[in-house]
UniProtKB/TrEMBL annotation:
PANTHER family cross-referenced by the UniProt entry: GERANYLGERANYL DIPHOSPHATE REDUCTASE (PTHR13789:SF318), MONOOXYGENASE (PTHR13789)
Domain of life, per lineage: Bacteria
Protein name: NAD(P)-binding protein
Source species: Shinella kummerowiae
MF annotations from Gene Ontology: FAD binding; monooxygenase activity
InterPro entries registered for this protein in UniProt: FAD-bd, FAD-dep_Monooxygenase_BioMet, FAD/NAD-bd_sf
Pfam families: FAD_binding_3
Keyword DNA damage: no
Species classification: Bacteria, Pseudomonadati, Pseudomonadota, Alphaproteobacteria, Hyphomicrobiales
Record domain FAD-binding: where: 5-339
Obligatory cofactor(s): FAD
Entry keyword set: FAD, Flavoprotein, Monooxygenase, Oxidoreductase
Amino acid sequence: MSSVTSATIVGAGIAGLTAALALAQKGITAHILEQAPAFEEVGAGLQLSPNASRILDDLGLIDRLSARWSEPDHILLSSGSSLAPLASVPAGGDARTRWGAPYGVLHRAALQAVLVDAVRREPLCTVTTGRRIETAEQARAIAPADILVAADGVWSRLRQAVPGALLARYSGTVAWRFLVPYGLAPPFLNPRTVTAFLGPQAHLVAYPLAESQAFNIVAIHQLAEAPPEGWSRQGDAMARKRLLDAFSGWHAGIRRLLNDAQEPLMWPLFECPDGAWTNGRETVLIGDAAHAMTPFAAQGAAMAIEDAALLAHVLADGTDSAQALRRFETTRRERVARVRSRGAFNRFAYHARGPIALGRNLVLALRGPQSLAADLDWLYGYRTPR
């Protein structure tokens, strides 16, 4: 019997909602506190790799998700200047066979809707909206519990409750996100693939969103100076110019895609340094609140989902909460560090230029699809202890 019977979760994003369901599956009640007055469609597309979808399947959500996502046949790397394919990793049915779970792409709002519906159906879960939480004491006063879970994102207010937790910092990159309806999409966008177009100091990712009948486009480029406070999320004329400048020399079709983008949203990318995630007693940070990372490995949502599953596992194993949280932090820190390293490698490889880019292309040309898939076994084949 676990010594933990209840948890208060601050934040109803992917991390918080998944944590509530995972805890409830272990018989632990979960009360979510969310600052928004209602759940709204926010964000853009996301990729759910098998290490994440496997957990969502264990929570009984895969059928509802499968009805709303696409399972691309391949993950493709292509040249941003010529559009020529550089490498391909099998997905689709191959992902289910090799890694035991699907690789799906969908709108973030679709995943949130499925999670919210499941939480509302779960008797051990409750949600209070419209409550902005600034301190751990405030959260405990509203919803007393054995454990306080801070799932309040990259700008977490509850980091102050964890000595040694570090503030988010600008990563030196910005992401532009927008949708292109299928009917208006250029022919080089393939509705059966996740495609990353690579170029010097920038890359662009495109994949289909079935429910939106549109491609999700994410254009990421390096920008040394941190964006000034108050930058519009739609970006001003200077920001749009910097975007196009970053993709100068790219294929004309991609430049046209960026130039014609309708209401693109600009997101400066922030990451959390490797600080503490728990106060060693009853408070723990998960998801972006603990380890926000840049999207170069497309693992931000997956790491939040893995956090939720492991947290529920360690809290339900009968040990005291302090020991359980230390175990959670130790186990997750090793895994997250490896994923961060993969993201750093991808950033270097994706944004390479000159002779390094030529060497990258040569190496990729010599690697077959199954060989490249094997390189991802540690990532996509990972199974969180249950």
